[in-house]
Amino acid sequence: MRWLLRRIGISLALAWIVATIVFMTLHMVPGDPAEILLSTGGVSPDPAAVAELRERLGLDQPLLDQYGHFLLGLTRGDLGVSLVDEYPVLDEIALRLPRTLELILAGTLIAVVIAIPAGTYAALHRGGLFDRIASGAAALLLAVPVFVVGTVLVLVLAQILRIMPAGGYVPLAQNPWQHLTLLALPSLAIAKGLAAVVFRMTRASVLDALSRDYVRTAHAKGISPTRVLVKHVVRNALTPVLTVLGLHMGTLLGGTVLVEYVFNWPGLSTPLLRAVEARDYPMVVGIVLTISGLFLLINLIMDLLYAALDPRIRTA
């Protein structure tokens, strides 16, 4: 329990640091945000309108007061109101975040289901035909950018073969089959890089575990090869795999922007790109903080999985 509380405390401290960095970065941007927002076509805005917007954004208050109101709003779940359409930022994120998470989880599931068994099999048959082909394919997938993979999938499967839709979104409750069909291609595009990384790490971890003394001892005791593989090899090899998986799942939160754009998937990418273009600071800050918080949550979950696989971590 003490280990768990310590990990939660570290995650909360990191969340506060990230929020502080985001706040300070916003105030280090050159120029007056209110004046920039109201400037159109190089024409200077009306000073009265600038003063009114500064008051509405709280920019007329001392920096420490702004920081205090910013942190207090976060504790209450108040991320402000969009400057473009005056829509609450939290409501927009609550609407679109599940779609982005669904895309990430589907891509992660595809990557894990394919890469961990493939990496284990390649390690058990090191130097064989499958090992060489799979390792080459993993290197190729790592070298190809995700938007290129997405474009190729659309071109081949949607435009040439016409067996999959090119993109779009239909709610799951409205049409489950069409929803899953539209989810397939962007999930594959998301999964390609993660599968390559997980495959290589699984292969390396299994090879390392196979050379350990406890594995040779288990074989010498006459334990069945299947039990040795599952209980001693794969279980110990999964810890570094989870480390890589957790890190890359976090980066996928920011890396889905291009995939959602290519496949017209209405996740967080649409309001983020629109907010950056329109200098909608509350929306940008809200989405960045959401992505950062989810990254910390994913790493906390991975820490709990480490402890489940290796109880010695709880005493570290």
TrEMBL record:
- Does the record bear Membrane in its keywords? yes
Gene Ontology annotations for the cellular component aspect, listed alphabetically:
plasma membrane
Q: Which residues form the ABC transmembrane type-1 domain?
A: 97-306
Q: Which GO terms describe its biological process?
A: transmembrane transport
Point out the signal peptide segment.
none
Matching entries from InterPro entries are given as: BPD_transp_1_N, MetI-like, MetI-like_sf
- Record keyword Transport present: yes
For this UniProt record, the keywords arranged alphabetically read as follows: Cell membrane, Membrane, Transmembrane, Transmembrane helix, Transport
Broad class of the protein's primary localization: membrane
Q: What residues form the membrane-spanning segments?
A: 12-29, 103-124, 136-160, 180-199, 237-263, 283-309
Where does this polypeptide localize? Cell membrane
Family statement drawn from the similarity comment of this UniProt entry: Belongs to the binding-protein-dependent transport system permease family.
What's this protein's name? ABC transporter permease
Originating organism: Teichococcus wenyumeiae
